[in-house]
Amino acid sequence: MGGVLEKGVWYKVIQVGANSPHIWGENDLMVKDRKFILFMILPTFLFISVVTFVPAIRSIFMAFQDYNMYYLTKKFIGFKNFADAFCDPIFVQALKNTAKWVLVSLSLQFVLGFSLALLLRKPFKGRGIYTALVFYPWAVSGFVIGLQWRWMFHGSAGVINDLLLKIGIIKEKIAFLSDPHYALYSAIVANIWYGIPFFAIMLLAALQSVPQELYEAARIDGANAFKQFVRITIPYVKPVIINTTLIRFIWIVNFPDIIFSMTNGGPAGSSHILSTLLISKVYNEYNYGVASAIGVVIMLILVTYAYFYLRFSKTEGGF
Amino acid sequence: MKRLLLIIRVLALGAFLMCALFPLYWTLVTSLKGQTEMYTYPITYWPKEITFENYRYLLRSLNFTRYTSNSIFVSLFSSLAALIVASFSGYVLARKQFSANKVLFFLLFMTQIIPGFILMSSIYVMFAPVGFTDSLFVLIFLYTGIMVPFSSIMMKGFFERIPESIEEAALIDGCKKLQMLFKVVFPVTAPGLAATFCFAFVNCWNELFLAIMLLNSESKKTIPVGLNSFVGKADIDWGAMAAGVMIALLPAMLIFAFAQKYIVQGLTQGAVKE
To answer: How are the residues of chain B apportioned to helix, strand and coil, as percentages rounded to the nearest 5?
Structure first.
């Protein structure tokens, strides 16, 4: 290790860091160990700063600048980007859609994922292969999932229309993705399908960690299956339920992929959520200022949310 | 009563499996259909005539072989780099001697709230003036940075399972700390390292938005970017699209099937107290 630490800028940084009382406080580690720890974590600091934190600060600045790729003025214009964003009816629509997108997807992902976990709880022949198959959506990108569902929801040649006609639920074909009433909900269906494995995996692991003795004791006391579920299973897995749901909230807000490839916000912006709106401001309008303003709005929502999440999960014994 | 419950359970499990597999099945069927059969009514649920013309078209006329090798190149090196960086910081997080661990963990958590696509315009503005666009190496750098935080948290979980006594034994034998890591700790965590690598690989393989932003030339595109340039066209060739989707998702699926057991372990041990 000595050789690596003895040279260059790294050495300077590590040298100064190892002797700084601000970092170490009451810690009674030897300087040698301090150097080792800094050597181990500095690359991570470097990467997350350059890739996340510096761009994040930069984009907060850009949100107050006239940053359009067509005419690079970069003038500071106060809150004009925010005003532009908020006055756009599509933004308001996207805000409402984000709420629908998150709440409907999250609740159904949870209910279906929990049901699947309960079904998988007791071992059966071939469970290993079954779970590998049923969990596969997890490995696929949201973008590709969106393409698959876009083809399945196709207005004339789509298989979903064909199946619904055969079962008799609908009388004539529906143009799911070009009808503003259906576009967002079609994407939500795909998103629910995509998110079931995550909940099933996490909750299955939690269910399997419930000590079996508890159930045996309950059975001896004459508690039926329903009572066992409410009194033992639910309280035992409650921390995992809370944690996974809260974390999943962040992921779904930050998940433009499916909508991007299924509808790209259309028709006429009716299925945009905040994150897809941001992407279309960048890709289609090159309006980085307004895009950054929308990004700041998303970050504000999520940072506020994360603050309460972290406080809450501390009291509930979180991750 | 017991029998009824069993029947319900089997039916429900069957329904879940069918719903999960149907999109995959449908994409496969579509990719094997000829151009005429694609849009004929009534819809056929198995191709009347299996043809590989979609795959042939994709690999010959479009640059799909190029996209695939680009994707492999980028994903391989970014996940390797992320693994090395993350296993270092994951180790520090797991051994709780470092008093600033809480700060580090908080910063890693914050990166998960601010995803790459929100920052893509500022990343572009930072990188473009220096000429850092349209380069696979820049993409590797960015993907590494994006994958480091989650990989660190995953590796932390795996390192926590190793008893500290084996490290002490190695140190007494005269190993230096970094030597001890490579000779003792990493070999013992091999399954964890493999799982984290696979997880990062699949995520890089799937990434779309930064790649669209940064890659322009045909020869640099990755698979998702290539597929996306398809979608932009007014008249989508769904046969070729389905074939492209199959090529995009099969490697990811195979890697996950192989590493699933360990990835699940890595993800759940933080959440589930044993």
So the answer is: 80, 0, 20
